[in-house]
Amino acid sequence: MEPRIQYAKTKDGVSIALATLGEGEPLVYMPMVVGHLQIEWQIPEFRRWYERLAEKRMVVRYDPRGSGLSEREVSDFSLDAQLLDLEAVVDRLGLDRFALFAYYLAGPVAISYATRHPERLSHLLLWCSWARAADAYDSPQAQSMIALREQDWTTYTETVAHVTLGWSAGEPARQYAAYIRESVTRETMLAVASAATGFDVTSQLSEVKVPTLVLHRRKVPLPEEDIARGLASRIPDARLAVMEGKSLAPWLEDVEAALSAIDDFLGEGEEGGGAEPTEPGAFRTVLFTDIEGSTALTQRLGDARAREVLREHERIVREALRTHSGSEVKTLGDGFMASFGSATKALECAIAIQRAFAEHNESAPEPILVRVGLNAGEPIAEEEDLYGTAVNLAARIAAKAEAGEILTSDTVRGLVAGKKFLFSDRGETAMRGFEDPVRLFEVRWREDAL
Questions:
Q1: Which of 92, 105, 106, 135 lies at a CB distance of 3.0 to 4.6 Å from 30, suitable for a disulfide?
Q2: Residue 183 or 87, more confident
Q3: What are the C-alpha distances in Å from 380 to residues 62, 276, 328, 335, 386?
Q4: Please, what is the angle between helix 140-151 and helix 186-196, to 10°?
Q5: Domain CATH code at residue 336
Q6: How many domains, in total, are found in the chain?
């Protein structure tokens, strides 16, 4: 059913269109620059994204001033004015406490709201955003987009659609370009963008006291990943979730990874939230990582420098576990043991780990070479640890892998049959402690193998 449109009135007298979807704890979803509630609902990818978000909560969406179904004849698009839009929406719905999701240009507005009204926010989520617009708009690509916006409105919207959704996007990009043109006039877009390029809330980052998750896709061209990392590093105790992909739109590409990161973050402290607890006898997929040559690394670099390398290994692995709903069981000095309720998520996590290390190694003075092994079964859960044959075999499989490899048992391969994964049969291998040989499969994770 199409959401019912309601209206709120801002303190400066602007009518703001809003709608809600689902039930439960509220998540207020701020629009990127412009919006149009009715048209969004007619685009399948948009609609599915909002429906999935609303499965576990009430999602609140609104059209910002000057666009969509909100009042169009507006001239003030300052940060303070956009804060008035948000305040009007949450006051209209009587939301005493809510989570706030800010997308792209809305990031500085959300950060400012978090410092002004920390008592009203339970969580802050920032998707592909920044604190200072100059960090994103100083690039040659951004300057070209600005020039195009001023010269050719239609070509500009088509280009924005492809930059946002990815250059390979076909029909979704065409629909998104039309959506922009229906949502806002060229003159209003120029005014909104002109105001937004001056936003700078860098000085407020240290004042954010709300639990914060910074989400980013690794190959998004604008803003770059370094901006997301810098943003997370300056917000106290903020988390960073970097996912694979190049689309700025969360509703495209690996939507499940985005939803999983959001659900895990919002679910913390709530019943049923976060990573699944492991019950005795529960069927789990167990993953082990191990750094190749860690002993030699320590001897070559010394304890202090080697520890810096290990910390980077820990950061990358934990980031992948958070993104793919993995439960960290324990660290092993130079490796991890983790478990998953889904074999698919376990393999996606393993691939994300290897891709992240491959990218890290392109520029790192000290490369980190990791092997990964997986098996599935019914481990014994005891005192926050896992034991048993399924765990032992996963560890043995990881030990058989080469640097940069992911090896898995036939059990895991069977669990994900028909999915997108590619495997190479490595044949039967003798395993220490196991009477019969074990058939191993290599997961082909490099992009040139897909």
A1: 106
A2: 87
A3: 48, 15, 15, 21, 5
A4: 150
A5: 3.30.70.1230
A6: 2
